[in-house]
Design brief:
The chain is mainly α. It has helices spanning 5-21, 26-33, 37-49, 65-87, 92-102, 108-119; strands spanning 53-55, 61-63.
C-alpha cells in the first residue's frame, strides 16, 4: 500500500523519536510534529491497518519491518538533502524545511545521483 507524504512524515518522526528516546507514544509524535493528538491517533490507526506500525498494549509505537524500511529511506533523504542545502549556503532551518518538501517528491534516480555526488571528495 502506497503511503501519502503525511504517512511518510509520521513514520520518519517515529524513527527519529525512537533514536532519541527509545520508547515512542502518540503524544510524542504529536509534540514532535506539532499536530493535534486526534490527528495523530487517526494517522496511527491508518499506519497500523497498512502494516507500517504496531501499537503495544501500553501505547508504545513500534515500526514494522516495512515501516522501518520506509522511515529509514525518508530519513536518509532528509539528512542528505538538508546537508546538501546547507553546503550550498542555505540556513540550517530553511534547509531542513525545504528538505522535508523535496524528500517526498524526488525520484530515486535523482536521489542516488545526489547521494553519489555528495559522497565524492571535493576536487
Amino acid at each position: 500500500m502506497a503511503l501519502h507524504e503525511s504517512g511518510e512524515d509520521y513514520l520518519e518522526a517515529i524513527l527519529v523519536l525512537q533514536e532519541e528516546k527509545g520508547i515512542v507514544h502518540s503524544i510524542d509524535v504529536a509534540q514532535h510534529l506539532g499536530y493535534s493528538k486526534p490527528s495523530v491517533s487517526r494517522a496511527m490507526s491508518i499506519l497500523r491497518t497498512s502494516g507500517h506500525i504496531v501499537m503495544e498494549k501500553d501505547g508504545q509505537l513500534k515500526l514494522t519491518e516495512e515501516g522501518l524500511r520506509v522511515a529509514s529511506s525518508i530519513y536518509e533523504r532528509h539528512k542528505l538533502l538538508t546537508n546538501w542545502l546547507i553546503h550550498l549556503g542555505v540556513s540550517p532551518e530553511t534547509a531542513a524545511e525545504d528538505a522535508c518538501k523535496i524528500e517526498h517528491d524526488i525520484s530515486e534516480e535523482t536521489f542516488q545521483c545526489l547521494k553519489r555526488h555528495a559522497q565524492e571528495p571535493e576536487q
